Target: RecA family profile 1 domain-containing protein
Amino acid sequence: MITDRRNYDAEMDDLELNPRILAACKKVNFASFSTILSLSSADLGRRTKLPANDVRTLLHTVSEKVYTNPSATALELYHGTCHQSLRVSCLRTGCEVLDGFLRGGILTPGITEIAGESAAGKTQLCMQLCLSVQRSTENGGLAGGAVYICTEDVFPSKRLHQLIQNFQKKLDATECRQLKLGDNIFIEHLSEIDQLVHCIQYRIPLLLKQSQVKLIVVDSVAALFRCEFSPGEAAKRAKRLQSLGAQLHRLSRLHHVPVICVNQVTANMSSGSLNPNQRQLIPALGLAWSNLIQTRLMLGRTAYKLSSGDAVCPPRPEDATQTQAGTDEVPVRSMEVVFAPHLPNDTCYFVVEAAGVRGLR
Ligand SMILES: Nc1ncnc2c1ncn2[C@@H]1O[C@H](COP(=O)(O)OP(=O)(O)O)[C@@H](O)[C@H]1O
Ligand SMILES: [Mg+2]
Model:
């Protein structure tokens, strides 16, 4: 506290302010810059007895001193000439069709939610992202490992091993030798919100600081929040969600890494839910969580099957008839962009195969 006070006094002296304004501030003996900024111009005028013009200058100078985050114009963002922390890039999914659909992949930085019913392919897609993030930036990755936080099931290590073997086939010999795919995925099993918060606050930042990690996956947020709070504790739950979301955003922005949060679905109980055009399943955790995420992708299972190896889009649901499952047929799944700052609302289809998630043209 004493150090803070000394810092404040020293920084106050450094401000390029008229000595008259400085003297008035010192006379009032403000505790910190935040005390000055939290007062209205009128209050500040009354306490310092400075005229309105001087108060305006004081507020402007202190604000400039406090706000050090880089900013950029829309043109600088567009040309990519802004500060590195403001630049936007994409993490490729490892499938050209899905990358095309997502206009490059998963937006970085920011929180992308992958919601969907059970067995929709959420975990498969996340695991594939954990592999593609390790590739160099020229190859669509972010040249780093991933943290995978499991809150639902045990991490499917066997399946990851199978994905790694197939993923390596796509790489050239040098890249294949350089990438230690299995060694760069840090897996954590958590069952309580407090453990998750501790992990995000203390353990992940350590890995991020060493640049070992370039992707954070929480599979899933819903599992923890749905069981720890009863329906009557919505406000309490919203508050915890908000603080979790803010921490994830901070890490994402500070270290320029994408954060993927898996979410479950819940039945749509709104007044229009009987309307067949309305969504029957909606992502869980309500509006409080929806407001914290940047992109929402919804995965689902369709009633259609595809012969293994086919690369065509299934017929539109309203035109198609359901096919019977054959031995070499794989279920077709859908990926819908519910909202995203850079994508229109659209749906594409994909299948999950031994080699991973593959989009259909
Ligand atoms: N080795 C595999 N080969 C083909 N399909 C697989 C394989 N492993 C999992 N799948 C498919 O992925 C589905 C599970 O997807 P998953 O991502 O775990 O679901 P969730 O959305 O619940 O996380 C399974 O139902 C299966 O169809
Ligand atoms: Mg899963």
Observations:
- The CA atoms of residues 120 and 300 lie 5 Å apart.
- The chain has 14 helices and 13 strands.
- The pocket of magnesium ion (ligand 2) is lined by residues 122-123, 152, 219 (CB under 6 Å).
- The two ends are 61 Å apart (CA to CA).
